[in-house]
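Format notes (please read before filing issues)

Several people have asked whether sequences and structure tokens are stored in separate files. They are not. Every record keeps both together, in the order shown below: the sequence lines, then the token lines. Line labels are part of the format and must not be stripped during preprocessing.
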Amino acid sequence: MKKKQRSFEPQLAIRNLSVLPGGEWQPPFSGWSLVQASNGSGYCLQAQGSVELETGAVLVAAGHARTVIRASQLGEMSLHTFCVMPGRLTGLITLGEQDFLKSLAIRKEGAIRILPPQSPAALMMREFCAARRQAGLLFRARLL
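Then the structure lines:
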């Protein structure tokens, strides 16, 4: 019997997702998730209530923050997302920076943020998503 050969091709740093009208998607709960609504509109559902997530806006959520993205019932919503796990970046970020991110995640006001489409982070995310090559160390370093 032949063994299946594993593929070690680099994974894309940014995932593209589609959420059907009225459908929901939940960011993975490890590390920090960055999610950009690239097309369509929807809502970020949290314990405190819901906030509109317009096209181009970026959601930044800490791993423990329970949030759901629901697409508008009027149309499909496209998302670009990636996850950063600060604990796995030893050597790239200092322990002080890791501690800062942990303390920010613990505070309720720091665990979930929605950045408007015209914010620098949203504009950079749009630029990264439009890049032809989304693989390689240089791309991932710039994304970080």
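For reference, the curators noted about this record: The longest strand covers residues 32-39. The helical segments are 95-106, 108-111, 120-130, 137-143.
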